[in-house]
Design brief:
With 470 residues, the protein is mostly helical. Helix content is 55%, strand content 5%. It folds into two domains: 179 residues, no CATH class; 257 residues, Orthogonal Bundle (Fic-like fold). It contains 19 helices and six strands. It starts with 17 loop residues before the first helix and ends in an 11-residue tail after the last helix.
């Protein structure tokens, strides 16, 4: 679009989508402000997704404006804007969220289509769960005489276990002389019952995703094997595959490491300061950090193999894994000491992904909820697949999330008696595509099948994750 520039990282290849996806929402806010001033908002349906902190980049953004011409504006990488003419909304029904004008949540729930309850039940249930009292929607329902919408909302609230709100909507509308027929707009029972206590919508989305996805994981994954008879033999195998694991995990993250470098770092015969150039220096630091983090992970594995709750162990230990992974960089002056303090304090974006991880404030709500789910989950396959997926979905750190996610995955595999499993660099595109399907389309099946195939290969001794010969 002429006159607009989008910043990109210098190491992005020509035509890569990361810079555009990272700038998408800020661009839309600036462009629409210049084009239409305050005469615009997102559609009710897309307003709801932002209310529940779902910032996934949509293929098409629907804009409502009084002077719209029903025009389609093409944007980079297959995205677009479609403006739709509408009547003016009251100012009270519009709110600003990071520069994006959206319907206030009560107005959006009333104006949205029936179909969205079927097409996007996770976001709809998360949005409904944030309504604290029936009065938030009753004003609009009564003023507009929306008896059929009142019946739909009453059914939706009852679906998520908020019976008091459902009853109050019906009784109040009836007291005003309206005939209300309650209809559940969802096509299935909710996997959760939401309490009246206000909770982060992102936390509720994670809990909903977990419950909706776990059955697909169980159907896809090999049967749980149960704890191994000998933790010593398990740990011996983990140490034997270390070089292969480090090579592939670091390569997926873009580091250029060799088996020889990994061995030298493990044996303490390589000092990063002796690197002849900056890239070699960074690769050596990454290999050293991976070795130190692996030792911390192995300590956690021993506790899990002794029967400790796997969710408890990683909740307590994952910060140690992270610190060990980046401590060599701090020592070398590449990272600041404050980088080891904990979860990120800035936005982060995933390369080539339309999924936008949550804000730094939301991370601090989401991570305790994530570990609660891990502690309570009895199925090791579910802990493995959803543990890895939800961790990278939240993306709690500025860097190292992929490596941490794979460490977490293997800790959960150990808790079920599965072998340590390596994600090979040769399957990186398939790996990332499966994670993207889960993140943007709420489809966990490709990722569950991907990991299940790798685990089966390890069980049969047919792993495809070999490393190059020296």
């Amino acid at each position: 679009m002429k006159g607009w520039y989008v910043p990109a990282s210098p190491d992005e290849t020509e035509g890569e989508s990361t810079g555009w996806y990272a700038s998408y929402w800020r661009f839309c806010a600036a462009y629409l402000k210049q084009l239409r001033g305050d005469d615009w908002s997102l559609s009710p349906e897309q307003s709801i997704t932002l209310h529940v902190e779902n910032w996934t980049v949509p293929k098409q953004l629907l804009i409502r404006a009084t002077k719209a011409g029903n025009n389609l504006t093409a944007l980079p990488h297959g995205t677009s804007l479609l403006d739709i003419q509408t009547t003016a909304l009251d100012a009270i029904d519009i709110v600003d969220k990071n520069g994006i004008r959206i319907y206030a949540l009560p107005a959006a729930l009333i104006a949205c289509s029936t179909q969205v309850f079927k097409q996007n039940p996770t976001d709809m249930r998360a949005a409904l769960s944030t309504i604290r009292d029936a009065s938030e929607v009753l004003d609009i329902l009564l003023e507009g005489g929306h008896s059929s919408i009142a019946g739909r909302l009453a059914g939706a609230f009852r679906n998520i276990g908020r019976h008091q709100i459902a009853d109050e909507i019906i009784s109040t509308m009836q007291a005003a002389g309206y005939v209300v027929r309650e209809v559940d707009p969802f096509t299935s029972e909710t996997p959760l019952v939401f309490s009246q206590r206000e909770q982060s919508p992102y936390v509720n989305r994670i809990r909903l995703m977990w419950q909706c996805m776990r059955d697909d994981v169980i159907k896809t994954f090999p049967e749980v094997k149960g704890p191994l008879a000998s933790s010593d033999s398990y740990m011996k195998h983990v140490e034997e595959v270390y070089v292969r694991d480090a090579y592939h995990s670091l390569s997926i993250e873009g580091y250029r490491v060799s088996p020889e470098l990994i061995e030298l770092v493990r044996e303490g015969d390589w000092s990063p300061e002796n690197s002849v150039n900056q890239k070699e220096h960074l690769n050596a630091l990454a290999a050293r950090g991976y070795w130190q983090a692996s030792q911390a992970v192995w300590h956690s594995l021993k506790r899990i193999l002794k029967g400790e709750n796997a969710g408890d162990v990683i909740d307590n230990d994952h910060r140690i894994w992270y610190r060990e992974m980046f401590a060599p960089g701090v020592t070398a002056g590449i990272h600041k000491p404050s980088d080891l303090a904990g979860y990120r304090n800035a936005p982060v974006f995933i390369r080539k992904s339309m999924h936008v991880p949550p804000s730094r404030e939301t991370v601090r709500d989401a991570m305790p909820a994530f570990f609660e789910l891990m502690r309570a989950e009895e199925n090791a396959a579910v802990r493995t697949v959803l543990g890895h997926f939800i961790f990278v979905y939240i993306h709690p750190y500025m860097d190292g999330n992929g490596r941490m996610g794979r460490f977490l995955m293997n800790a959960m595999l150990a808790s079920g008696g599965y072998p340590w499993t390596v994600v090979p660099i040769e399957k990186c595109n398939e790996y990332m595509a499966a994670l993207e399907a889960a993140s943007t389309n709420q489809n966990i099946e490709p990722f569950a099948k991907f990991l299940a195939a790798l685990v089966n290969s390890e069980i049969k001794g047919e792993s495809a994750s070999d490393i190059p010969k020296s």
